[in-house]
Write a structure and sequence with these properties.
single chain; Cytochrome Bc1 Complex, Chain D, domain 2; two-stranded antiparallel sheet; about 55% helix; binds heme C
């Protein structure tokens, strides 16, 4: 196999491995949510403090159900706007699962 062919096989493999349009929950969270909730879920960023986001690393901060979480992401809650136009219900569920992992 010459190097050119190898290169095209490699780039084809990379294309297949690329994530779907949505990317993954971690990427979306970093882009759209970390500004308030913080990269580590603490909510201690400037925006997080201003909007009074909870600390998701504590049991207290996680005191909401998955259903409430999905609803908050899609329809918004307090200072947080809803993401219905950008995020599907399945993605909202993935984001909730991602946020749950902040609590050690
Ligand atoms: C403008 C700041 C802001 C942004 C951006 C933001 N949130 Fe929020 N979020 C809040 C606030 C404020 C609340 C309600 C207060 C609270 O209870 O933490 C909240 C509530 C929530 C809740 C409900 C649980 C709870 O704490 O009451 C979830 C789940 C959530 N956000 C996830 C997300 C996700 C996922 C994103 C990104 C798609 C996001 N948030 C973006 C500020 C924000």
């Amino acid at each position: 196999m010459n190097w050119k062919l190898q290169a095209s096989v490699l780039s084809a493999a990379l294309l297949i491995a690329a994530p779907a349009a949505f990317g993954d929950a971690a990427e979306l969270y970093g882009k759209s949510c970390a500004s308030c909730h913080g990269k580590d879920g603490k909510g201690d960023s400037v925006m997080g403090k201003k909007s009074k986001a909870r600390d998701y690393t504590t049991a207290e901060g996680q005191k909401w159900t998955d259903e409430e979480g999905v609803k908050a992401i899609l329809e918004g809650k307090e200072k947080m706007k809803g993401y219905k136009e950008k995020v599907t219900e399945a993605e909202a569920k993935e984001l909730v699962a991602y946020i749950r992992k902040f609590k050690k």
